[in-house]
């Protein structure tokens, strides 16, 4: 927000300076002004997101140390950056809501999850699960319906949505949801070095979502084992151990 206003002001100043101080004229000065505003916004937004990333790094260390109260306080302190850039507040609300959900504090988690970004699929999935646990079935299905539309490649969301429908006896609807999920393109492994595979991210999110099913690799469970470098069969040269005689 502040970043956008500052960028617009910079663009206006540049355009006016070129229009009044040179022979370009107002029409010719518009493009340099727009370019200056775009560059300024990029630089300011990047600076703000760097500060937010630093907050998330601290929160990650605190969460790994099981210091959830301190992690929530750190995230709440990050709202000082929300006035400067769009989407910062929704990301902070998503992180706070997920931490509170993991602690099983549904009443405190719901308001934050409600304000999470629609593309944050884990937070939206937790919101649907939290509503269902509050017996708000209509609210849960509505959230998950919107979530799968915004995150079409996230199989875990489709699974949770179908699971809730099945639990409510809406078998045909659950089948339709799963059939629709099969028609959607799957998220592929990122080509960036060091990136986490989708199966691992879904497995980590599984702890907070009821009824989630981590998909089996296409080549079967043994493919996942072989991918970790584990032998398919025990070695043949293991020493034979005889059972001790009974006394």
Helices and strands in order:
Elements lengths: L1 H20 L3 H40 L3 H10 L10 H15 L3 H9 L6 H13 L3 H14 L4 H13 L3 H13 L14 H9 L14 H7 L20
What descriptors fit this protein?
247 residues, mainly alpha, 66% helix, 0% strand, elongated
**N-to-C CA distance:** 81 Å
Indicate the mean pLDDT: 82
| Spans where pLDDT lies below 50 across 5 or more residues | 190-194, 201-239
Task: Count helical runs.
Answer: 11
Shape: elongated
Rg calculated over all Cα atoms: 25 Å
Percent helix, as a range, is 55-70%
Run of helices and strands: HHHHHHHHHHH
What does this structure look like?
This protein is an all-alpha fold. The chain has a domain of 63 residues. The protein has eleven helices and no strands. The longest helix is centred in the first third of the chain and has 40 residues. The protein starts with a helix and ends in a 20-residue tail after the last helix.
Brief digest:
The protein has 247 residues and is mainly alpha-helical. The protein is built from eleven helices and no strands. 66% of the residues lie in helices and 0% in strands.
